[in-house]
Amino acid sequence: LAGFGPFGEHAVNASWIAVQELEKLGLRDDVDLHVYEVPVEYQTVQRLIPALWKKHSPQLVVHVGVSGMATTVTLEKCGHNVGYKGLDNCRFCPGSQCCVEGGPECIDSIIDMDTVCKRVSALGLDVAVTISKDAGRYLCDFTYYTSLYQSRGRSAFVHVPPLGKPYSAEQLGRALQAIIEEMLD
């Protein structure tokens, strides 16, 4: 499970706070949970994501990012390979503007996000969950595509809104817990 560090106007990144909340809450006993804070840096992502897949050989990797436009917890269906023009925290942008040279334009998660969304919504949590097909062509989408490519689709990405807009850290942590347990099912 990975959240992101600070960037831009997000001096405190809600994704990392939500991941830490989930770590406190935990997942069911048969889940071996590893938590990482990922710097908002393209080159670090290109090294770190393959290294984590190699180190842990996980069944699933879930990335969590903040979206200043989000008002719901959003399940991303796919990652995109091209269109990366925004500078990261190191003022760097890939010259090719893509994740994997020669990779497919889009990779879908093997997780049925529509079903996960329906089932989590039916739990009656005080958090709205929605679906998206565009994670935004910045570090979130870049990380998601990199992980999907590495795992042949065994990754997921969840966008959360900034803290307090409208959800608390605890609400986001509980929502992530329900979403990830549903994904594992």
TrEMBL record:
Q: Which InterPro entries match?
A: Peptidase_C15, Peptidase_C15-like, Peptidase_C15-like_sf, PGPEP1_Cys_AS, PGPEP1_Glu_AS
Q: What class of enzyme is it?
A: hydrolase
Q: Could you tell me the superkingdom of the organism this chain comes from?
A: Eukaryota
Stated EC number for the protein is: 3.4.19.3
Q: Which reaction does it catalyse?
A: Release of an N-terminal pyroglutamyl group from a polypeptide, the second amino acid generally not being Pro
Q: Which GO terms describe its biological process?
A: proteolysis
Q: Name one GO molecular function term.
A: pyroglutamyl-peptidase activity
- Name recorded for this polypeptide: Pyroglutamyl-peptidase I
Pfam family, any one: Peptidase_C15
What are the catalytic residues?
76, 140
Functional description taken from the UniProt entry: Removes 5-oxoproline from various penultimate amino acid residues except L-proline.
> Which CDD domains does the record cross-reference, listed alphabetically?
Peptidase_C15
The record's annotation in SUPFAM superfamilies points to:
Pyrrolidone carboxyl peptidase (pyroglutamate aminopeptidase)
Query: Subunit structure, briefly?
Result: Monomer.
Gene Ontology cellular component list: cytosol
Localization annotation: Cytoplasm
Is Cytoplasm found in the keyword set?
yes
The family classification in the record reads: Belongs to the peptidase C15 family.
Q: Which UniProt keywords apply?
A: Cytoplasm, Hydrolase, Protease, Thiol protease
